[in-house]
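cache lookup: miss for this entity combination. No prior model stored, computing from scratch. Input as submitted by user K.M.:
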Amino acid sequence: MDDVSPFRPAADGGPHDAHPARAPRRAPGRAPAGPGPAARRTRGPAAVAALGLAGALAAACGGSGHAGGDAAGLTYASAGLVNCLDPQASASRLISIIDRNLFDSLVATGPDGRIQPWLATKWEVSPDGKAYTFHLRSGVTFHDGTPLDAAAVKATMDHAVDPKTKSVYASSLLGPYTGTKVVDASTVRIGLSKPYAPLLQSLSTPYLGIQSPKALRASCTKPVGSGPFSFVSWTQNTSIVLKRNPSYAWQQATAKHTGPAKLAQLTFRLVPEDGARYGALTSGQADLIDDVPTANVKALKSASGLRFLQKDIPGTVENITFNASRPPLSDVKVRQALQRAVNVDQLVKSVFTGVYARAWSVLSPATPGYTASLRNSIPYDPAAAAKLLDEAGWTGRDSAGYRTKDGKRLSVRWPVGAQLIRPSENILAQGVQAEAKKAGIEIQYVSEDSGAFVRDVLAGNLDLYINNWRALNPDILRNMYASDRVPSVGGSNMFHLKDPQLDGWLNSAAASEDAAARQKAYADAQTRIVQQGLSLPLFVPSELLGVSGKVQNLNFDASLYLQFYDVSLGKA
Amino acid sequence: MKQDPGAEPDAPPSGAPRGGGRAALARWVARRLLLAAVVVLGAATVTFGALRLAPGDPVKVMVGLSAAQNPEIVAQARHETGFDRPLAVQYADFLGDLARGDLGWSYQLQESVPAVIADNLWPTVSLTLTGFALALLVAVPLAVATAGRRPAWRALSSLLELVTVSIPGFWVGLLLLTFFSFRLHVFPATGGTGLSGLVLPAITLALGLVGLFTQILRDGMARALDQPFALSARARGTGETAVRLRHALRHALIAISTISGWTVGALLTGAVVVETVFGRPGLGRVLATAIQNRDFPVVTGITIVSGALFTLITLGVDLLYRVVDPRLREAPA
């Protein structure tokens, strides 16, 4: 349900990132009808009518349903939504996957987590850790012919932090960023106000992919980068088409080949309907689908000519964050009781037909710094929950069977954005509600229109909040739990938690280069988050992909985004 | 429907405007067009008001929850969208833009609203027209065959109609996809904008209307067949089928045209589901997303365009009445 997470750093993604309320790019209120976008898809009725027959013929030929499978390219049917392709503005999972093909980054993160050269051939970090100097590769050009130089890098970084960009994630990735300086045409320096260890990894993500400075203004709808594929067309709510960049020669060091990509074309089809997406794969109309409906996983595993791929997503797991800043959850015993009152194992298994694993820590096992020691630390234990509630003074019972204290019912509020929650997650949430009721805790699970939901979240008028965040770095914990990472400064500590111990571990880990010390600090932080009842981890979100047997060399990058540069189509 | 008022008998009875049928018709059409403009303006105003009454701060919904926490971004967006101005000024700006034909700029899609509508209008119009035509194509023979006779056939037809009206559109769509696209590979599953991509979505949409149309047509025909004119036609030796087709059907079609305005609305709603299941572009889906995201210019733009379409269709239907029922030709607008 990463969808519900208002603060999910776009990196987010999760199984499903159709966040409808995603930030728009720059919104020129009275902006002129940009020539770019208007020209992009001028498809008047007449033109379409004229093309109708041709389209019908084409469809009929591709038709026997194998439109996606020929040598021309690969078709990826996704459950996601796309509203802006500017990587510095948007943050959803699908947009990142698309953008990775269009934009290259200064550096790359290898599968082992080590940083490797990419558009920057080498770099130096100043002794005080506050200045990063990058030497750019020569001979790189953007799709519009503009050469890559220091000014282009600076323009991209300035664009990321410009309030007009309304960046929801990219700007936060830059940490204590102070600015970018052009040293000479092929040298650029990024300045920080204090050391920030995650910077290089941040720069390797698609969110900080380098854009052609000429195209920045229109990059929402006409993205121009230097990547292995270039943008061709976008039909709203329907498809996005990219084609091979024939002059590409600056692939990542981990790539399996050199030169242009192997696929001539890459088509992203937006298919929100589970059944239609799954059917498109089984009938050969798509070569790859995401968000395989969990009910279809078993069938997919045994289907011939198809593969099922499941990869745990790094970052935070799908979890319910507890609002410890107001009663009744300000009492640690009530929080701990709620953790034990819910049979998470059983719920996750039955709702997702055993596809997702139950989570024990707020970090996903795929995240560096994950600690496995929390396993079974908060088992389903109604007796322990009852005892904790007794100790907390909630000893009375009202006519509906809920616990009371001083005549007040033990009740918590859980609003969700109706448009943002998937049906399966809705069922899971109702399961949690039913289990809590057995323990005498009322959960007011209410489905709200996006306006009311945003208002509740901003006003802090909620006790439970469900979300997950895709992030390669355990520093995501700092963004969620450090006392200075409140939403008004771009952080995600939405309940304004102030825990000096967590602050100490998380802040020192972010500034430290000592791997062992970082590991220890993150393990301590995860343990405290669970033991203090700040969160109830539910399940480990994973990529659930259905892949045609024809698709070869499909890989994930370090953040588990799909890589299409090496992919080719063979025989099924 | 071709209309040739000049060819009609020119016999204005008492109370009818002088000047002949042609001039009367022109005046009638002019008045109706003026009325249509008022209706469109009213729809736009109601939409403008309703969107501002919806819960929550529209700018915060628009920028998304993450960005809504950043005062700088919110202030920037509020200024760009004009929401920092008084409501009266916003409304005046809105009317001024409308008068100049400027439908505005979509915050979410980063595109001018006319371009958004141009991209999505034809897929929806072609879908709804095809769906409407298919529904009539099935409903007319069904009604003609079953009206007023053979109770068993009528019962069977009624059952079918009930089923088609009751099944949710997305389920019909998935069933059609499963057989014709996934299994038989006859039609593409998603994203089709050509003819072959239109077939399954149009059938899905049509099935929801067939039952309704058949029932209305059959009721109308049954009533018409009991009228004296049917009896006199039969008395003149006209065959039963001819009586049904030439006389009764004509009466029943009036009822269908009466609900055609309603049908346009229903089709636009149904299009949201169909467009989602089949991954089609279209106004229905764009409108649904725009409402969720408080993308006001897109919502008002689509309201204005569909309002204009709606009033034009109603106007066309009323013209049609005058063709079907000569008595109305003399009636004032």
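stored under new cache key. The two ends of chain B are 19 Å apart (CA to CA).
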